[in-house]
Write a structure and sequence with these properties.
Layout (H helix, E strand, L loop, with lengths): L1 H43 L8 H12 L13 H13 L10 H6 L3 H6 L11 H14 L4 H16 L7 H5 L6 H4 L9 H11 L10 E3 L14 E5 L2 E4 L1
Antiparallel strand pairs: 1-3, 2-3
Length: about 240
């Protein structure tokens, strides 16, 4: 009789163990799947210890904008992390020193931002960025990348100047300010290069050194524009103050 009781107790114990194992597997599977998704996102991000061409691109951009003073060596070290944190702080991002989707996007690295996304649209830009990109595309799509950033920088320099409206839209749509508005080319859809140039300008790159004007001397018809002090010539455009 005691043997039967022991066997029954053992059987009940085995059933309990199996039930617990099944329950554990069911209740923990979503967490495991979430961990996999998190790991995939983290793999797409850049962090201290990362290496490669994307790290070089980040370093180049941060160095250009004055956040980074080290070597562009493709090695994500402590100095690069500190520069990323400063950039994130300046742009209202989570300050974690990790270049994930939002930081990639703020840096103008749209392809990397899309690769790091777990779903949804990541290529959306705010209205100022998109409008600035439209202006750049309409005014300077035939110019070098630096020349395109320079046009965006002039718009932003005007926004900061008391001589002009204090918004991107106000500057661009100021009467007779830009030929592209007058002839309707402002309504063209900008390409990715123009969007990236707009982001670079918004992030502080100013190849003009603070200029408020630019013109193509081969096409300019205003005598007044020729009286402005020339600072630099980039491609076909003269930039002046």
């Amino acid at each position: 009789m005691k043997k039967i009781i022991r066997v029954s107790a053992l059987a009940l114990s085995l059933v309990a163990v199996l039930a617990a194992a099944v329950l554990f597997g069911v209740t923990h599977r979503p967490a495991d799947e979430a961990s996999v998704r998190l790991e995939q996102v983290e793999t797409a991000a850049l962090r201290q210890g990362s290496r490669g061409e994307d790290v070089k691109t980040v370093q180049t951009k941060l160095k250009r904008w004055g956040y980074y003073g080290g070597s562009v060596d493709g090695i994500y070290g402590a100095q690069t992390k500190k520069a990323v944190e400063q950039f994130q702080r300046k742009n209202g991002l989570t300050v974690d020193g990790v270049v994930g989707r939002q930081t990639f996007e703020a840096l103008g690295m749209m392809e990397q931002a899309q690769q790091g996304s777990t779903g949804g649209s990541v290529g959306a830009t705010n209205s100022d960025t998109y409008l600035l990109a439209r202006c750049i595309y309409a005014e300077a799509r035939g110019e070098s990348y630096t020349g395109q950033v320079a046009v965006g920088a002039v718009v932003l320099n005007r926004v900061k100047s008391p001589q002009f409206p204090n918004t991107v839209a106000g500057v661009i749509y100021q009467r007779h300010a830009f030929t592209a508005v007058s002839d309707g080319q402002i309504n063209l859809t900008p390409d990715q290069t123009a969007v990236n140039a707009a982001k670079d300008a918004l992030n502080g790159w100013d190849p003009t050194g603070g200029c408020l004007y630019y013109y193509n001397p081969a096409k300019a018809t205003s005598e007044w524009i020729f009286t402005r002090q020339t600072v630099v010539t980039i491609g076909k455009h003269v930039f002046a103050i």
